[in-house]
């Protein structure tokens, strides 16, 4: 009987510990969404899991990257947050930083071995997100990290094609300077120039018509 009581006590204690950890994690995720770095730091010190995830798979680091919270992202990275842990859609911290255009966070992630070539569930990579939104500095940083300037992704689209489709002239110009090929075709047989003309991207169309 005593053994049974002791066993039940241990089970209850373990359940309470799990509940406490869950509460800490929930508070950590809430503090991250609120941008409260002091509270985030304190909760991690109290035992919250630095890579805890919310219902859509966002970790504190992913949330910080999506919101452009550079000091918080730096703190999380330096404290050992997983720089490659993705959300349920496969969005990594680096993809989030690339989409947001935060070059400082992108640099931190790459310096801490973020996978620059990772693809999300729809097949997009950080360089595609950055190129389509005209974040030239991040595109260049990804190329410096070893991403192939002529890599073809889903539907055979290249970074130049993404820049062309959204009329990102500065990004397209930099990609061309780094060796991006104009003659590559997507799965429809369209070149970057064709895409620019189709989407009304007049600046990139003009750029690609030269030379």
C-alpha termini separation: 89 Å
CA-based shape: elongated
CATH superfamily of the largest domain: Ankyrin repeat-containing domain
User: How much of the residues is beta strand, in percent?
Assistant: under 5%
Give me the number of helical elements.
Answer: 12
Biggest sheet, in brief? Answer: none
Radius of gyration: 22 Å
CATH class of the largest domain: Mainly Alpha
Give me the secondary-structure category: mainly alpha
CATH architecture verdict of the largest domain:
Alpha Horseshoe
CATH topology of the largest domain: Serine Threonine Protein Phosphatase 5, Tetratricopeptide repeat
- Strand tally: 0
Taking pLDDT < 50 over at least 5 consecutive residues as the criterion, the unreliable ranges are 8-19
| Range of helix content | 55-70%
Average pLDDT level: 91
Keywords: ANK repeat, Repeat, Signal
ANK repeats: 56-88, 89-121, 122-154
Pfam families: Ank_2
InterPro entries: Ankyrin_rpt (IPR002110), Ankyrin_rpt-contain_sf (IPR036770)
